[in-house]
Amino acid sequence: MSTGTPGQIDDLRAWLDAARDLGDVRDVRGADWNLEIGAASEVNYRSANPAALLFDSIEGYPDGHRVLTGSMSNARRLALTLRLGSDLDDHALVRALRGKPSEWIARAVDFPPVEVASGPVTEIVESGDDIDLTAFPAPQWHEDDGGRYIGTGCAVFTTDPHTGHVNAGAYRMQVQGPRHATINIEAGKHGAMHVREWFAEKGRCPVTATLGSDPLLVIAAGTEVPVNVSELAYVGAIQGHPVEIVPGQVTGLPVPANAEIVVEGWLHPDRRSHEGPFGEWTGYYSGGGGREEVLELEIERVYRRPDPILLGTPPGKPPHDYSYMRSVMKSSMILDALVATGLPEVRGVWAHEEGGGRQLLAVAIDQKYPGHARQAGLLASQIPAAAYMNKFVIVVDGDVDTRSLSEVMWAVCTRTEPGQDIEVLRRTWGSRVDPLDPGDGPPFNTRAVIDACRPFELLDSFPKVAEASADLCQKVVAKWPDVLGGR
Protein backbone atom coordinates (compact mmCIF):
# COMPACT_ATOMS: atom_id res chain seq x y z
CA MET A 1 0.00 0.00 0.00
CA SER A 2 1.35 3.36 -1.03
CA THR A 3 1.61 6.14 1.50
CA GLY A 4 1.17 8.73 -1.22
CA THR A 5 4.88 9.56 -1.41
CA PRO A 6 5.60 10.24 -5.09
CA GLY A 7 8.88 8.30 -5.10
CA GLN A 8 7.03 5.10 -4.17
CA ILE A 9 4.82 5.07 -7.26
CA ASP A 10 5.94 2.37 -9.69
CA ASP A 11 2.69 1.42 -11.42
CA LEU A 12 -0.95 2.37 -11.84
CA ARG A 13 -2.02 0.58 -8.67
CA ALA A 14 0.46 2.43 -6.48
CA TRP A 15 -0.68 5.63 -8.19
CA LEU A 16 -4.30 4.77 -7.32
CA ASP A 17 -3.36 4.14 -3.70
CA ALA A 18 -1.63 7.51 -3.51
CA ALA A 19 -4.57 9.28 -5.17
CA ARG A 20 -6.97 7.60 -2.72
CA ASP A 21 -4.85 8.88 0.16
CA LEU A 22 -5.57 12.36 -1.21
CA GLY A 23 -9.29 11.63 -1.29
CA ASP A 24 -9.22 12.09 -5.07
CA VAL A 25 -10.68 8.79 -6.32
CA ARG A 26 -14.39 8.04 -6.73
CA ASP A 27 -15.65 4.50 -7.38
CA VAL A 28 -18.44 4.03 -9.92
CA ARG A 29 -20.14 0.62 -10.10
CA GLY A 30 -22.53 -0.76 -12.67
CA ALA A 31 -21.84 1.61 -15.59
CA ASP A 32 -22.30 0.41 -19.16
CA TRP A 33 -19.25 0.48 -21.43
CA ASN A 34 -21.58 1.76 -24.12
CA LEU A 35 -21.66 5.56 -23.60
CA GLU A 36 -22.28 5.64 -19.82
CA ILE A 37 -18.57 5.55 -18.87
CA GLY A 38 -17.83 8.28 -21.40
CA ALA A 39 -20.75 10.50 -20.36
CA ALA A 40 -20.03 10.12 -16.64
CA SER A 41 -16.39 10.98 -17.26
CA GLU A 42 -17.38 14.08 -19.24
CA VAL A 43 -19.73 15.33 -16.52
CA ASN A 44 -16.98 14.75 -13.95
CA TYR A 45 -14.14 16.60 -15.62
CA ARG A 46 -16.35 19.60 -16.25
CA SER A 47 -16.87 20.01 -12.51
CA ALA A 48 -14.91 22.55 -10.48
CA ASN A 49 -12.46 20.01 -9.05
CA PRO A 50 -12.82 16.74 -10.95
CA ALA A 51 -11.89 13.51 -9.20
CA ALA A 52 -10.41 10.40 -10.76
CA LEU A 53 -13.18 7.91 -11.55
CA LEU A 54 -12.60 4.16 -11.24
CA PHE A 55 -15.33 2.16 -12.98
CA ASP A 56 -15.92 -1.44 -11.81
CA SER A 57 -18.70 -4.01 -12.14
CA ILE A 58 -19.06 -2.78 -15.71
CA GLU A 59 -22.09 -4.29 -17.42
CA GLY A 60 -21.17 -7.51 -19.18
CA TYR A 61 -17.75 -7.81 -17.50
CA PRO A 62 -16.48 -9.48 -14.33
CA ASP A 63 -15.64 -7.47 -11.24
CA GLY A 64 -12.03 -6.31 -11.33
CA HIS A 65 -11.98 -5.51 -15.05
CA ARG A 66 -11.87 -1.76 -14.52
CA VAL A 67 -11.57 1.54 -16.39
CA LEU A 68 -9.93 4.64 -14.90
CA THR A 69 -10.63 8.16 -16.19
CA GLY A 70 -9.83 11.69 -15.02
CA SER A 71 -6.44 10.61 -13.74
CA MET A 72 -4.68 13.95 -14.31
CA SER A 73 -7.53 16.45 -14.41
CA ASN A 74 -6.49 18.53 -11.40
CA ALA A 75 -3.29 20.03 -10.04
CA ARG A 76 -2.81 17.67 -7.09
CA ARG A 77 -2.99 14.48 -9.15
CA LEU A 78 -0.90 15.90 -11.97
CA ALA A 79 1.77 16.96 -9.46
CA LEU A 80 1.57 13.50 -7.89
CA THR A 81 2.03 11.89 -11.31
CA LEU A 82 5.05 14.10 -12.05
CA ARG A 83 6.57 13.23 -8.64
CA LEU A 84 6.47 16.87 -7.59
CA GLY A 85 4.48 16.37 -4.40
CA SER A 86 0.82 15.90 -3.58
CA ASP A 87 -0.26 19.25 -2.14
CA LEU A 88 0.23 21.71 -5.00
CA ASP A 89 -2.45 24.00 -6.37
CA ASP A 90 -2.47 25.36 -9.93
CA HIS A 91 -0.04 28.23 -9.33
CA ALA A 92 2.33 26.16 -7.19
CA LEU A 93 2.39 23.42 -9.83
CA VAL A 94 3.31 25.89 -12.57
CA ARG A 95 6.12 27.28 -10.37
CA ALA A 96 7.37 23.79 -9.51
CA LEU A 97 7.53 22.86 -13.20
CA ARG A 98 9.70 25.85 -14.15
CA GLY A 99 12.79 24.38 -15.80
CA LYS A 100 11.79 20.78 -15.09
CA PRO A 101 11.20 19.57 -18.69
CA SER A 102 14.68 20.72 -19.70
CA GLU A 103 16.13 19.08 -16.61
CA TRP A 104 14.35 15.80 -17.32
CA ILE A 105 15.49 15.83 -20.94
CA ALA A 106 19.10 16.40 -19.84
CA ARG A 107 18.92 13.65 -17.21
CA ALA A 108 17.19 11.08 -19.44
CA VAL A 109 20.54 9.73 -20.67
CA ASP A 110 21.22 8.56 -17.10
CA PHE A 111 17.99 6.54 -16.85
CA PRO A 112 17.75 4.12 -19.79
CA PRO A 113 15.14 1.38 -19.32
CA VAL A 114 16.31 -1.84 -17.68
CA GLU A 115 15.42 -5.26 -19.08
CA VAL A 116 13.96 -7.81 -16.64
CA ALA A 117 12.82 -11.37 -17.21
CA SER A 118 9.25 -10.87 -16.04
CA GLY A 119 6.89 -8.53 -14.25
CA PRO A 120 3.27 -8.19 -13.17
CA VAL A 121 2.17 -7.67 -16.78
CA THR A 122 3.53 -11.09 -17.82
CA GLU A 123 1.43 -12.98 -15.28
CA ILE A 124 -0.92 -13.86 -18.15
CA VAL A 125 0.34 -14.10 -21.74
CA GLU A 126 -2.20 -14.85 -24.45
CA SER A 127 -1.63 -15.77 -28.10
CA GLY A 128 -3.58 -17.09 -31.06
CA ASP A 129 -7.26 -17.73 -30.50
CA ASP A 130 -6.91 -16.88 -26.80
CA ILE A 131 -6.58 -13.21 -27.74
CA ASP A 132 -9.86 -11.29 -27.50
CA LEU A 133 -9.79 -7.52 -27.21
CA THR A 134 -13.53 -7.51 -26.52
CA ALA A 135 -12.75 -9.27 -23.22
CA PHE A 136 -11.71 -5.83 -21.96
CA PRO A 137 -14.41 -3.21 -21.22
CA ALA A 138 -13.21 -0.76 -23.86
CA PRO A 139 -15.81 2.03 -23.92
CA GLN A 140 -17.67 3.62 -26.72
CA TRP A 141 -16.85 7.06 -25.38
CA HIS A 142 -19.04 9.39 -27.47
CA GLU A 143 -22.46 8.92 -29.01
CA ASP A 144 -21.27 9.31 -32.62
CA ASP A 145 -17.97 7.43 -32.33
CA GLY A 146 -17.43 4.77 -34.95
CA GLY A 147 -16.76 2.06 -32.38
CA ARG A 148 -15.03 1.14 -29.15
CA TYR A 149 -11.66 2.74 -28.39
CA ILE A 150 -9.40 0.58 -26.26
CA GLY A 151 -6.47 2.97 -26.67
CA THR A 152 -6.88 6.54 -25.42
CA GLY A 153 -4.62 6.53 -22.35
CA CYS A 154 -2.12 4.42 -24.24
CA ALA A 155 1.54 4.49 -25.25
CA VAL A 156 2.37 3.00 -28.65
CA PHE A 157 5.98 1.85 -29.06
CA THR A 158 7.79 1.85 -32.41
CA THR A 159 11.47 1.75 -33.24
CA ASP A 160 13.83 3.20 -35.82
CA PRO A 161 14.89 0.19 -37.95
CA HIS A 162 18.39 1.63 -38.41
CA THR A 163 19.31 2.94 -34.96
CA GLY A 164 17.00 0.91 -32.71
CA HIS A 165 15.79 4.13 -31.04
CA VAL A 166 12.41 3.48 -29.40
CA ASN A 167 9.60 6.03 -29.56
CA ALA A 168 6.40 6.11 -27.52
CA GLY A 169 3.40 8.02 -28.87
CA ALA A 170 -0.18 8.45 -27.70
CA TYR A 171 -2.13 7.36 -30.79
CA ARG A 172 -5.77 6.38 -30.55
CA MET A 173 -6.65 2.69 -31.02
CA GLN A 174 -10.06 1.39 -32.10
CA VAL A 175 -11.10 -2.24 -31.61
CA GLN A 176 -11.61 -3.87 -35.01
CA GLY A 177 -12.02 -7.48 -33.89
CA PRO A 178 -10.71 -9.97 -31.33
CA ARG A 179 -7.13 -9.73 -32.62
CA HIS A 180 -7.13 -6.44 -34.49
CA ALA A 181 -7.09 -2.73 -33.63
CA THR A 182 -6.44 0.31 -35.79
CA ILE A 183 -3.75 2.80 -34.79
CA ASN A 184 -4.31 6.37 -35.98
CA ILE A 185 -0.89 8.06 -36.27
CA GLU A 186 -0.55 11.59 -37.67
CA ALA A 187 1.88 11.76 -40.58
CA GLY A 188 4.41 14.08 -38.91
CA LYS A 189 4.75 12.09 -35.69
CA HIS A 190 7.88 10.10 -34.87
CA GLY A 191 5.91 6.86 -34.86
CA ALA A 192 4.67 7.48 -38.41
CA MET A 193 8.25 8.05 -39.58
CA HIS A 194 9.28 4.71 -38.05
CA VAL A 195 6.35 2.93 -39.69
CA ARG A 196 7.25 4.28 -43.14
CA GLU A 197 10.89 3.24 -42.70
CA TRP A 198 9.95 -0.28 -41.59
CA PHE A 199 7.57 -0.67 -44.51
CA ALA A 200 10.29 0.41 -46.94
CA GLU A 201 12.95 -1.82 -45.36
CA LYS A 202 11.06 -4.91 -44.18
CA GLY A 203 7.51 -4.71 -45.49
CA ARG A 204 5.97 -4.65 -42.01
CA CYS A 205 6.43 -2.74 -38.74
CA PRO A 206 6.63 -4.12 -35.17
CA VAL A 207 4.55 -2.45 -32.46
CA THR A 208 3.82 -2.82 -28.76
CA ALA A 209 1.28 -0.70 -26.91
CA THR A 210 0.32 -0.25 -23.27
CA LEU A 211 -3.40 0.07 -22.62
CA GLY A 212 -3.08 0.66 -18.88
CA SER A 213 -0.08 2.04 -17.02
CA ASP A 214 1.20 4.67 -14.63
CA PRO A 215 -0.24 7.89 -16.12
CA LEU A 216 3.30 9.28 -16.21
CA LEU A 217 3.99 7.13 -19.29
CA VAL A 218 0.97 8.68 -21.05
CA ILE A 219 2.30 12.18 -20.29
CA ALA A 220 5.62 11.28 -21.91
CA ALA A 221 3.93 9.64 -24.90
CA GLY A 222 1.53 12.55 -25.43
CA THR A 223 3.95 15.48 -25.31
CA GLU A 224 6.75 16.49 -27.68
CA VAL A 225 9.80 14.85 -26.15
CA PRO A 226 12.77 15.53 -28.50
CA VAL A 227 13.33 12.88 -31.15
CA ASN A 228 16.71 11.85 -29.74
CA VAL A 229 15.32 11.26 -26.24
CA SER A 230 13.58 8.01 -25.30
CA GLU A 231 10.22 8.53 -23.64
CA LEU A 232 11.05 5.58 -21.38
CA ALA A 233 14.28 7.28 -20.30
CA TYR A 234 12.35 10.54 -19.86
CA VAL A 235 9.96 8.76 -17.50
CA GLY A 236 12.95 7.31 -15.67
CA ALA A 237 14.41 10.80 -15.21
CA ILE A 238 11.12 12.09 -13.78
CA GLN A 239 10.59 9.22 -11.35
CA GLY A 240 14.27 8.99 -10.41
CA HIS A 241 14.86 5.36 -11.37
CA PRO A 242 14.77 3.35 -14.62
CA VAL A 243 11.62 1.89 -16.12
CA GLU A 244 11.66 -1.92 -16.11
CA ILE A 245 10.82 -3.54 -19.43
CA VAL A 246 10.38 -7.09 -20.68
CA PRO A 247 11.37 -7.70 -24.31
CA GLY A 248 8.33 -8.66 -26.36
CA GLN A 249 8.23 -12.35 -27.29
CA VAL A 250 7.43 -11.60 -30.94
CA THR A 251 9.06 -8.27 -31.80
CA GLY A 252 11.55 -7.65 -29.00
CA LEU A 253 10.02 -4.20 -28.46
CA PRO A 254 9.53 -2.94 -24.91
CA VAL A 255 6.75 -4.34 -22.74
CA PRO A 256 6.67 -2.18 -19.58
CA ALA A 257 6.92 -4.75 -16.80
CA ASN A 258 4.55 -2.96 -14.41
CA ALA A 259 1.83 -2.19 -16.95
CA GLU A 260 -1.73 -3.50 -16.73
CA ILE A 261 -2.20 -4.59 -20.35
CA VAL A 262 0.22 -4.59 -23.31
CA VAL A 263 -0.47 -5.76 -26.86
CA GLU A 264 2.20 -6.77 -29.37
CA GLY A 265 2.02 -7.30 -33.09
CA TRP A 266 2.66 -6.04 -36.60
CA LEU A 267 1.43 -3.32 -38.93
CA HIS A 268 1.33 -4.14 -42.66
CA PRO A 269 1.02 -1.54 -45.42
CA ASP A 270 -1.84 -3.37 -47.13
CA ARG A 271 -3.87 -4.12 -43.99
CA ARG A 272 -6.18 -1.26 -43.20
CA SER A 273 -9.64 -0.83 -41.74
CA HIS A 274 -12.24 1.89 -41.62
CA GLU A 275 -11.66 3.91 -38.44
CA GLY A 276 -13.71 6.55 -36.68
CA PRO A 277 -15.26 8.98 -36.47
CA PHE A 278 -14.02 9.81 -32.99
CA GLY A 279 -14.69 12.75 -30.68
CA GLU A 280 -11.29 14.43 -30.66
CA TRP A 281 -9.52 17.05 -28.52
CA THR A 282 -10.57 19.85 -30.85
CA GLY A 283 -14.12 19.32 -29.62
CA TYR A 284 -15.38 17.84 -32.89
CA TYR A 285 -15.61 14.40 -34.41
CA SER A 286 -12.44 13.89 -36.41
CA GLY A 287 -12.46 14.23 -40.15
CA GLY A 288 -15.74 16.10 -40.08
CA GLY A 289 -17.49 12.91 -38.96
CA GLY A 290 -16.25 10.71 -41.81
CA ARG A 291 -14.52 7.34 -41.72
CA GLU A 292 -11.05 6.76 -43.12
CA GLU A 293 -8.72 3.90 -43.88
CA VAL A 294 -6.18 3.47 -41.08
CA LEU A 295 -3.41 0.92 -40.48
CA GLU A 296 -4.58 -2.16 -38.61
CA LEU A 297 -2.46 -3.86 -35.96
CA GLU A 298 -2.44 -7.65 -36.13
CA ILE A 299 -1.97 -8.68 -32.49
CA GLU A 300 0.12 -11.77 -31.73
CA ARG A 301 0.51 -11.41 -27.97
CA VAL A 302 -1.46 -9.88 -25.12
CA TYR A 303 0.31 -9.46 -21.78
CA ARG A 304 -1.86 -8.65 -18.81
CA ARG A 305 -2.58 -8.85 -15.13
CA PRO A 306 -5.49 -11.08 -14.00
CA ASP A 307 -7.70 -8.09 -13.09
CA PRO A 308 -6.49 -5.37 -15.48
CA ILE A 309 -7.28 -1.66 -15.41
CA LEU A 310 -7.75 0.17 -18.69
CA LEU A 311 -6.51 3.75 -18.53
CA GLY A 312 -8.91 6.02 -20.38
CA THR A 313 -8.14 9.58 -21.41
CA PRO A 314 -11.08 10.41 -23.67
CA PRO A 315 -10.88 13.76 -25.43
CA GLY A 316 -13.77 15.93 -26.60
CA LYS A 317 -14.91 19.54 -26.37
CA PRO A 318 -12.52 21.18 -23.88
CA PRO A 319 -12.15 20.96 -21.00
CA HIS A 320 -11.75 17.21 -21.43
CA ASP A 321 -9.95 14.36 -19.70
CA TYR A 322 -6.36 15.41 -20.40
CA SER A 323 -6.72 19.05 -21.48
CA TYR A 324 -5.52 20.31 -18.08
CA MET A 325 -2.48 18.04 -18.18
CA ARG A 326 -1.62 19.06 -21.72
CA SER A 327 -2.00 22.77 -20.94
CA VAL A 328 0.32 22.55 -17.95
CA MET A 329 2.92 20.36 -19.65
CA LYS A 330 2.93 22.20 -22.96
CA SER A 331 3.18 25.57 -21.21
CA SER A 332 6.20 24.43 -19.25
CA MET A 333 7.91 22.78 -22.24
CA ILE A 334 7.35 25.78 -24.52
CA LEU A 335 8.61 28.17 -21.85
CA ASP A 336 11.78 26.11 -21.41
CA ALA A 337 12.27 25.88 -25.18
CA LEU A 338 11.85 29.63 -25.68
CA VAL A 339 14.34 30.43 -22.93
CA ALA A 340 16.76 27.92 -24.46
CA THR A 341 16.74 29.86 -27.76
CA GLY A 342 18.28 32.81 -25.95
CA LEU A 343 15.16 34.95 -26.22
CA PRO A 344 15.49 37.42 -23.33
CA GLU A 345 12.99 38.46 -20.68
CA VAL A 346 10.41 35.70 -21.14
CA ARG A 347 7.99 36.05 -18.24
CA GLY A 348 5.44 33.34 -18.87
CA VAL A 349 3.75 30.99 -21.33
CA TRP A 350 0.32 29.42 -21.20
CA ALA A 351 -1.22 26.96 -23.68
CA HIS A 352 -4.92 27.49 -23.08
CA GLU A 353 -7.36 24.62 -22.62
CA GLU A 354 -9.79 26.35 -24.97
CA GLY A 355 -7.34 25.44 -27.73
CA GLY A 356 -6.71 21.96 -26.42
CA GLY A 357 -3.31 23.00 -25.07
CA ARG A 358 -2.05 23.44 -28.65
CA GLN A 359 -4.01 25.97 -30.68
CA LEU A 360 -3.90 29.08 -28.47
CA LEU A 361 -0.64 30.18 -26.83
CA ALA A 362 -0.06 33.29 -24.74
CA VAL A 363 3.55 34.45 -24.26
CA ALA A 364 4.54 37.26 -21.87
CA ILE A 365 7.77 39.24 -22.23
CA ASP A 366 9.34 42.43 -20.95
CA GLN A 367 10.23 44.29 -24.16
CA LYS A 368 13.89 45.23 -24.49
CA TYR A 369 14.31 46.23 -28.14
CA PRO A 370 12.29 46.98 -31.29
CA GLY A 371 10.87 43.76 -32.76
CA HIS A 372 11.24 41.82 -29.52
CA ALA A 373 7.50 41.04 -29.32
CA ARG A 374 7.29 39.92 -32.95
CA GLN A 375 10.38 37.76 -32.50
CA ALA A 376 8.86 36.06 -29.46
CA GLY A 377 5.64 35.32 -31.30
CA LEU A 378 7.29 33.95 -34.43
CA LEU A 379 9.64 31.75 -32.41
CA ALA A 380 6.79 30.39 -30.29
CA SER A 381 4.67 29.67 -33.35
CA GLN A 382 7.26 27.32 -34.88
CA ILE A 383 9.36 26.00 -32.01
CA PRO A 384 9.12 22.16 -32.07
CA ALA A 385 7.35 21.94 -28.73
CA ALA A 386 4.56 24.18 -30.07
CA ALA A 387 4.52 23.74 -33.85
CA TYR A 388 1.91 20.97 -34.22
CA MET A 389 -1.54 22.40 -34.99
CA ASN A 390 -0.85 25.77 -33.40
CA LYS A 391 -3.21 28.49 -34.66
CA PHE A 392 -2.82 31.58 -32.46
CA VAL A 393 0.16 32.97 -30.58
CA ILE A 394 -0.60 36.10 -28.57
CA VAL A 395 2.38 38.02 -27.18
CA VAL A 396 1.64 40.25 -24.18
CA ASP A 397 3.63 42.45 -21.82
CA GLY A 398 4.87 41.08 -18.52
CA ASP A 399 2.09 42.82 -16.58
CA VAL A 400 -0.48 40.50 -18.19
CA ASP A 401 -1.25 37.08 -16.65
CA THR A 402 -0.86 34.61 -19.52
CA ARG A 403 -3.09 32.09 -17.70
CA SER A 404 -6.02 34.51 -17.65
CA LEU A 405 -7.79 34.47 -20.99
CA SER A 406 -9.68 37.54 -19.80
CA GLU A 407 -6.44 39.50 -19.28
CA VAL A 408 -4.93 38.24 -22.54
CA MET A 409 -7.95 39.32 -24.57
CA TRP A 410 -8.02 42.68 -22.74
CA ALA A 411 -4.47 43.19 -23.97
CA VAL A 412 -5.47 42.22 -27.50
CA CYS A 413 -8.34 44.70 -27.44
CA THR A 414 -6.33 47.61 -26.02
CA ARG A 415 -2.75 47.09 -27.29
CA THR A 416 -3.21 45.55 -30.75
CA GLU A 417 -3.66 47.52 -33.96
CA PRO A 418 -5.05 44.75 -36.23
CA GLY A 419 -3.76 46.33 -39.43
CA GLN A 420 -0.13 46.14 -38.33
CA ASP A 421 0.09 43.79 -35.33
CA ILE A 422 -1.21 40.50 -36.75
CA GLU A 423 1.08 38.31 -38.83
CA VAL A 424 -0.32 35.27 -40.66
CA LEU A 425 1.92 32.29 -41.46
CA ARG A 426 0.76 29.91 -44.17
CA ARG A 427 1.28 26.21 -44.97
CA THR A 428 2.25 25.34 -41.41
CA TRP A 429 1.87 22.00 -39.59
CA GLY A 430 -1.81 21.13 -39.28
CA SER A 431 -3.70 17.93 -38.57
CA ARG A 432 -6.43 15.70 -39.91
CA VAL A 433 -8.35 16.17 -36.66
CA ASP A 434 -8.79 19.87 -37.45
CA PRO A 435 -12.49 20.37 -38.28
CA LEU A 436 -11.40 22.91 -40.91
CA ASP A 437 -9.11 20.44 -42.71
CA PRO A 438 -10.68 19.71 -46.14
CA GLY A 439 -9.23 16.20 -46.13
CA ASP A 440 -8.11 16.30 -49.78
CA GLY A 441 -4.38 16.76 -49.29
CA PRO A 442 -1.60 17.24 -46.75
CA PRO A 443 -2.95 18.76 -43.51
CA PHE A 444 -1.49 22.26 -43.65
CA ASN A 445 -2.92 25.11 -41.61
CA THR A 446 -2.33 28.81 -41.13
CA ARG A 447 -1.53 30.56 -37.86
CA ALA A 448 -1.72 34.09 -36.57
CA VAL A 449 0.88 35.81 -34.41
CA ILE A 450 -0.77 38.67 -32.54
CA ASP A 451 1.39 41.39 -31.01
CA ALA A 452 -0.68 42.47 -28.01
CA CYS A 453 2.21 44.35 -26.37
CA ARG A 454 2.31 48.09 -25.93
CA PRO A 455 4.02 49.60 -28.97
CA PHE A 456 7.74 49.70 -28.28
CA GLU A 457 8.03 53.34 -29.31
CA LEU A 458 5.24 54.25 -26.85
CA LEU A 459 6.46 52.35 -23.80
CA ASP A 460 7.22 55.55 -21.88
CA SER A 461 4.03 57.36 -22.85
CA PHE A 462 1.42 54.59 -23.05
CA PRO A 463 -1.53 55.22 -20.70
CA LYS A 464 -1.19 53.77 -17.21
CA VAL A 465 -3.40 50.80 -16.32
CA ALA A 466 -6.31 51.78 -14.09
CA GLU A 467 -6.13 49.28 -11.25
CA ALA A 468 -5.22 49.26 -7.59
CA SER A 469 -1.63 48.41 -6.75
CA ALA A 470 -0.80 45.02 -5.22
CA ASP A 471 0.25 46.70 -1.96
CA LEU A 472 -3.02 48.58 -1.71
CA CYS A 473 -5.02 45.42 -2.40
CA GLN A 474 -3.15 43.55 0.33
CA LYS A 475 -3.77 46.43 2.74
CA VAL A 476 -7.55 46.41 2.28
CA VAL A 477 -7.73 42.61 2.45
CA ALA A 478 -5.83 42.70 5.73
CA LYS A 479 -8.17 45.39 7.07
CA TRP A 480 -11.40 43.56 6.11
CA PRO A 481 -10.42 39.88 5.90
CA ASP A 482 -13.94 38.60 6.59
CA VAL A 483 -15.27 40.53 3.61
CA LEU A 484 -12.35 40.37 1.18
CA GLY A 485 -10.17 37.50 2.39
CA GLY A 486 -11.43 35.02 -0.14
CA ARG A 487 -11.09 37.32 -3.15
TrEMBL record:
Domain 3-octaprenyl-4-hydroxybenzoate carboxy-lyase-like C-terminal: 324-452
GO molecular function, one term: carboxy-lyase activity
Residues of the 3-octaprenyl-4-hydroxybenzoate carboxy-lyase-like Rift-related domain: 116-318
Gene Ontology terms: cellular component: cytoplasm
GO BP term, pick one: cinnamic acid catabolic process
Domain 3-octaprenyl-4-hydroxybenzoate carboxy-lyase-like N-terminal: 18-93
Domain of life assignment: Bacteria
NCBIfam families found in the cross-reference section: UbiD family decarboxylase (TIGR00148)
UniProt-recorded name of the protein: UbiD family decarboxylase
